[in-house]
Design a protein that fits this description.
CATH topology of the largest domain: Rossmann fold
Number of domains: 2
Number of helices: 6
Distance between the termini: 57 Å
Strand order of the largest sheet: 1-2-3
Radius of gyration: 25 Å
CATH architecture of the largest domain: 3-Layer(aba) Sandwich
Strand content: 5-15%
Oligomer: single chain
């Protein structure tokens, strides 16, 4: 028997829940949900558990829609989403300048490594992917500034 405090915390995916129910049936154990008093060893309990799993998935999809809409509204207002930048502006400006001259990500990373330029976390090893993240951050900053100017 698997006992859970709340059925919606076990799974919010109907497919995953159905797989779990199939496994329980195949292996001969039951699922008991304490919040609803659901015991899947009975036909009524199994049906109720499936209905509740459907509602849990529905709720998850609603939350995702609301979150997506809220993030889009913030972006439209020019709010920069994500972690705040900790890399010094001088390093960011240097990366932007090297990129603007046509240097590739690998060359920029190698140059920063050769010069001993510390990364955002104080490390000394730049990777092309790290340089790409810095350049993406600059694009996001520009988009946020443009959105603020349009608002």
């Amino acid at each position: 028997m698997l006992v859970v405090a709340k059925l919606d915390r076990l799974s919010r995916s109907l497919v995953d829940f159905a797989g779990l129910m199939e496994r329980a049936s195949r292996e001969g154990w039951a699922l008991v949900s304490l919040d609803l008093g659901v015991d899947t060893s009975t036909p009524q309990g199994e049906m109720l558990a499936n209905v509740m799993a459907s509602f849990a998935q529905f709720e998850r999809r609603l939350i995702a829609e609301r979150t997506k809409a809220a993030l889009a509204a913030l972006k439209a207002r020019g709010v920069r989403l994500g972690r705040p930048r900790v890399l010094p502006d001088a390093v960011v400006d240097r990366i932007a300048e090297m990129s603007a001259t046509g240097l590739g990500l690998r060359v920029i990373a190698r140059t920063l490594n050769d010069d001993g330029t510390p990364t955002a976390n104080g490390g000394l090893c730049w990777h092309p992917s790290t340089v790409a993240v810095v350049l993406r951050g600059l694009r996001l900053d520009a988009e946020a500034a443009a959105a603020r100017g349009a608002a």
